[in-house]
Design goal:
alpha/beta, Glutamine Phosphoribosylpyrophosphate, subunit 1, domain 1, Rossmann fold, 3 domains, seven-stranded antiparallel sheet, binds 5-amino-5-deoxy-1-O-phosphono-D-mannitol
């Protein structure tokens, strides 16, 4: 949530800042701003997209040091004043902030009593005035920032520039900051996406770190003043292109990247000979896997749905009790933690605050958590220490697509691995591994022949609501379809396990109501047919996602076949038409597909 980019060097800062903001826009996009230092500091802020800021800039904004921010509003409405950077009263200090200052109210009262007039409603602005007060007592920039943060409570990733100092001061606590290292120039950003085209060498700040970034070097220190040697790591080795290429939207690009993303996730992890899977990063031996009392998965949104699929696959293949939890609820319910159970935190961004809080709760109670994460080096990945990366490549559309498939694939690998350590036979393991290996090819085949998605869009785009149904492993897929359509096309959607439909949601059905049913050829299919008939009897129109060649197609008003696979792996196929329905419905309704209203890609507030 919210994006930060900073530059200091020998080139003009503004092209780096604007390009960085464009690449970070997926993190928040209700307003943006830049502060560039050229003798004095010039600040420009604008509500709307980064393109609106760019259009509003004077023709020349010169300076070789600057900071910029793209905002997702938390405190205070979407206004030019509330956009970052925020400045000291004399305009000699400018600051950008990600995170939340929890005691902003009392700091604001203090500042106002001291006669300082704040210009915005944000929590962030208090920081720049506090820093200014420290500077006026003679403190150096780093000391002023450190003293200010000692009085603040909450989370921050901040960058501060000073008119009379050639440096950017940064600090991290709960909101990531990465420093990109160049030659005679350096960058700071809230994630690695804007840095990838600029440098491969980065320093990832830890919580409690501060850094002085200047043209010729980086000095890092801790909150208590101790200096530290920060580890320089390389960005090499991650696949995927952060550019849009020939696609009109990131969502469509990412849907079409699923075959390659799945190959990246599965490569080197399938043991065809022994019918097994290898997730070495989990650090679990077969002996340990045999003794595990239960598995718990934690996630939000799409990651939760992938966890719900994973829960069923793990329980089916390994016969070990498995639960998927909503991360945002988890720690508030004082959960009982068994220290020998396995916990997984599932997250694309690795920054989701609710999931991070759940991880900390488990760790506090003596449990271990392993990450199932996409973004390498992200906060949750590092907090867990161990786990497996899902290798989806960069996902920039707010609507998560390829991460869902890869989370399901990674959890399926784990299900086979723990299954084989327990009661799953080698023969069955071999069949599963072979089937899983074929999934990327099947996804490719479906994407080349998508079925009548446009017909579905005509049916759902003006509907009052759309009901999504599925049973067993298809129930979370139905939820995922509903989430996608709701978040990018703003159509009210309801998702239910098909059998529950008759216990309430059936009341919504009337002549022509669209009902999307996910019914692969598994042991629950016959039961789902009964639910379809109950819907049809009330005049509903059935959009049926089913396997190719299955006679269930006759039950449909609109039939969308997907290639057949093992019942455990159908979610990676049945989810595809649902992603395309959401994408095309959003387009038909003129919605901003990649940047849906009110949302942001990574949700770093609880
Ligand atoms: O980065 P995470 O996977 O932890 O994100 C979790 C959810 O915020 C995310 O899946 C969200 O629901 C998406 N917008 C769904 O498309």
């Amino acid at each position: 949530m919210c994006g930060i980019i900073g530059y200091i060097g020998h080139q003009q800062a503004i092209p780096f800042l604007l390009d960085g903001l464009r690449r970070l826009e997926y993190r928040g996009y209700d307003s943006s701003g830049v502060a560039v230092k050229n003798g004095d500091i010039s600040v420009h802020k604008k509500t709307g997209k980064v393109a609106d800021l760019e259009a509003s800039l004077p023709t020349k904004v010169e300076g070789t040091c600057g900071i910029a921010h793209t905002r997702w509003a938390t405190h205070g409405g979407v206004t030019d004043e509330n956009a970052h950077p925020h400045c000291s009263a004399d305009g000699k200090i400018a600051l950008v902030h990600n995170g939340i200052i929890e005691n902003a109210r009392s700091l604001r009262n203090y500042l106002e009593k001291e006669g300082i007039k704040l210009r915005s409603e944000t929590d962030s602005e208090v920081l720049v005035h506090m820093i200014d007060r420290e500077i006026s007592t003679g403190a150096k920039p780093l000391t002023a920032v450190r003293r200010t943060l000692k009085r603040a409570r909450g989370t921050w990733g901040i960058c501060v520039v000073f008119e009379s100092h050639e440096k950017i001061i940064c600090a991290r606590n709960g909101s990531p900051l990465v420093i990109g290292l160049g030659s005679g120039e350096n960058w700071v950003a809230s994630d690695t996406l804007p840095l990838q085209a600029l440098t491969q060498q980065v320093i990832r700040l830890e919580d409690g770190d501060l850094a002085e970034v200047s043209v010729d070097g980086i000095k890092t220190s801790r909150f208590d003043g101790r200096t530290t040697d920060s580890e320089v790591t390389s960005l090499d080795g991650e696949w995927g292109e952060a550019e849009l290429g020939d696609y009109p939207h990131f969502m469509l690009k990412e849907i079409h990247e699923q075959p390659e993303a799945l190959r990246q996730c599965l490569t080197g992890r399938l043991d065809l000979k022994n019918g097994n899977a290898r997730l070495g990063g989990l650090g679990l031996t077969a002996k340990q896997l045999q003794k595990i009392p239960h598995v718990r998965l934690l996630g939000c949104g799409t990651a939760l749905h992938a966890s719900q699929v994973g829960r069923l696959v793990i329980e089916q293949l390994a016969r070990v009790p498995t639960v998927a939890h909503v991360s945002s609820e988890f720690r508030h319910n004082n959960p009982v933690i068994e220290t020998d159970a396995i916990h997984f935190a599932v997250s694309q961004s690795g920054e989701t605050a609710d999931t991070l809080a759940a991880v900390k709760e488990i760790q506090l109670k003596g449990g271990e958590v392993r990450g199932v994460i996409n973004v390498v080096g992200s906060t949750i990945a590092r907090q867990c220490g161990r786990g497996c990366y899902i290798h989806s490549g960069p996902e920039q559309s707010v609507a998560s697509t390829k991460a869902f498939s890869n989370m399901v694939a990674a959890l399926s690998l784990f299900a086979i691995q723990i299954g084989r350590a327990r009661s799953l036979s080698r023969e069955k393991g071999k069949h599963l591994v072979k089937s899983l290996q074929k999934v990327p090819q099947l996804v490719e085949e479906y994407l080349a022949n998508q079925g009548p998605i446009d017909e579905v869009v005509d049916l759902v785009k003006d509907a009052k609501s759309v009901l999504f149904l599925g049973r067993g492993i298809s129930a979370p897929v139905a939820r995922e379809g509903a989430l996608k359509l709701m978040e990018i096309a703003y159509i009210p959607c309801l998702a239910y396990p098909a059998g529950e439909m008759k216990h309430g949601p059936i009341a919504l059905l009337e002549e022509g109501s669209p009902v999307v049913v996910v019914a692969p050829n598994d042991s629950l299919k016959e039961k789902t047919v009964s639910s379809i008939q109950e819907c049809r009897a009330r005049g509903a129109k059935i959009i049926l996602i089913h396997e190719e060649g299955d006679s269930i197609a006759e039950e449909a008003d609109i039939s969308i076949p997907v290639p057949a696979t093992d019942p455990m792996f159908t979610p990676m196929l049945t989810v595809l038409p649902l992603q395309l329905i959401a994408y095309k419905a959003a387009l038909a309704l003129g919605c901003d597909v990649d940047r849906p209203r009110n949302l942001a890609k990574s949700v770093t507030v609880e």
